[in-house]
Amino acid sequence: MADNKKIKTALISVFHKDGLDEMLKLLNGYGVKFLSTGGTKSFIESLGYSCDAVEDLTGYPSILGGRVKTLHPKVFGGILNRRDNEGDREQIAKYEIPEIDLVVVDLYPFEETVASGASEADIIEKIDIGGISLIRAAAKNYNDVVIVASKHQYAPLCRILAENGDAVTSLADRRFFAKEAFGVSSLYDSAIFNYFDEDDASAFRAAVDGVSHLRYGENPHQKGKFFGRFDDMFEKLHGKEISYNNLLDIDAAVNLISDFTEPTFAILKHNNACGIASRPSVLEAWKDALAGDPVSAFGGVLITNGEVDAATAEEMHKIFFEVCIAPSYTDDALKILEQKKNRIILVLKKIDLPKEQYRSVLNGVLRQDKDTYVESVSDLKQVTDKAVSPEQVEDLLFANKVVKHSKSNSIVLAKNKQLLASGVGQTSRVDALRQAIEKAHSFDFDLKGSVMASDAFFPFADCVEIAHKAGVTAIIQPGGSIRDNDSVDYCNKNGLAMVMTGVRHFKH
Questions:
Q1: What is the pTM of this model?
Q2: How far apart are CA 239 and CA 344, in angstroms?
Q3: Which of 61, 317, 447, 502 sits at 20 to 30 Å (Cα–Cα) from 201?
Q4: Rounded distance between C-alpha atoms, residue 180 and residue 157, angstroms
Q5: Cβ neighbours of residue 64 under 8 Å, at least 6 residues apart?
Q6: Domains and CATH numbers, the chain
């Protein structure tokens, strides 16, 4: 076919050489001529293959500390010349420019250098010039040239060449590699721009490698994809394909559990905790988390910050759930949990979560710092005559963590570091509170001696009054209303304790 092209000459100059030997062996077997620079040339020759030096082609050595090696008309002319263009053919013949049919090049590790804490001088030196130029040139001329811009593309090229035979590629093959190459260059340029842009946020530039094609989106009639490196955060041990909605709940679960240090178990449904408890053991935490709402727990996402043992797994196995996340599992626990073939079992790895959040809105993107603030005892401002007890402080801080991760408007009722009930996603804080009270009563919880947390201030004393009549004895809220005194006065008249944090945790 006319679209098929044979690779006769390959320019190879790479930073990462792992896996390169297999590709070189295949290309050499097809009689491909090698052209290279510096360390890559030495590597090729160490394998016993002949390799011409780029500097012999250009007539110039590597100069300026390696900043200029391949930037020369004899290199770029060899890549960019159009094989079916008579004028191009005449010019490369006149200037003795050899055709280059395959370019294998990667980029200096810019992001890794930034992450290492290196000096700015070292970082700047990792801004690739020749490599990015070679990638763009070869990708532009995909009609005639194959571009391999990452070590991750070594294996696909080998597979295609083996299938086609005789170092031949189709136009579709070359276009695929060009697309992958522009993906590499866009990711690289975005990283460099964001480094220079720092906190200015003058423009939104984001590029994420890796895509998972989901069965569908939030609903079956919506297409869904996940762009990200899921395997960097989790090891999937068992279960069916992870869905779009699974990912939303997993994200909510991980963010919630990250605020707890003592053994804690949480059950989430639709991004909100329907059960959560902190206890001396994971098993106890599970039992009391489930007690918070055994109905909503059906089909939920479970997460704990401790190891799941056999005894805990036996109790978990009694209900249907979609996903379980933990830092580790005993072998006996896995044998129990894996009895359900579709049950997704994930190991949460130790990894730093992103510090920024993005959300598509209208025809643009919202960006904000992630809400990572976790209140401590020192943040609590006593505003009532009655002081909170040490036990109440623990419950208040527990409840405040839960309300932080609940959809606004939100109210959380808790006692003994157990979620009794919550009202979430309501248009009125009064509705949220009434929802929580009704739900707690439906599961036979006694609210006497419980605490209440609100994600935002009380503009009126109505919530405080309703909570008091339900049995709440201590309240935590951010404060900040011009009518804060209404709530404080009610507490003082009725013997309630209230603390304010000065920090609001809206979650829309």
A1: 0.85
A2: 4
A3: 502
A4: 12
A5: none
A6: 5-197 (3.40.50.1380), 233-348 (3.40.140.20), 377-500 (3.40.140.20)
Mean pLDDT of 115-124: 90
The sign of the CA dihedral 325, 330, 334, 337 is negative
Rounded (10°) angle between helices 20-29 and 154-164: 20
Token readout for 79 is 């890549």
Q: Tens digits of per-residue pLDDT, 58-104?
A: 887 777 877 777 788 888 899 999 988 999 899 989 988 899 999 99
With beta carbons less than 8 A apart as the criterion, state whether 480 and 504 touch: yes
pLDDT in tens, 233-250: 999 999 999 999 999 999
> What does each C-alpha distance from 401 to 9, 115, 372, 375 come to in angstroms?
62, 30, 11, 8
Known catalytic residues?
140, 270
Question: What's the CA gap between 422 and 402, in Å, rounded?
Answer: 9
> Which residue from 373, 404, 405, 390 is spatially nearest to 497, judged by alpha carbons?
390
Which pLDDT band, with edges at 50, 70 and 90, does 225 fall under?
A: very high
Please tell me the predicted confidence (pLDDT) of residue 2. 66
| Mean of the per-residue pLDDT values of the chain | 93
* 251 neighbors 353 (Cβ within 8 angstroms): no
- State the Cα–Cα distance between residues 135 and 365, nearest whole angstrom: 30
Neighbours of 128 (CB within 10 A): 21
For residue 138, the model assigns a pLDDT of 95
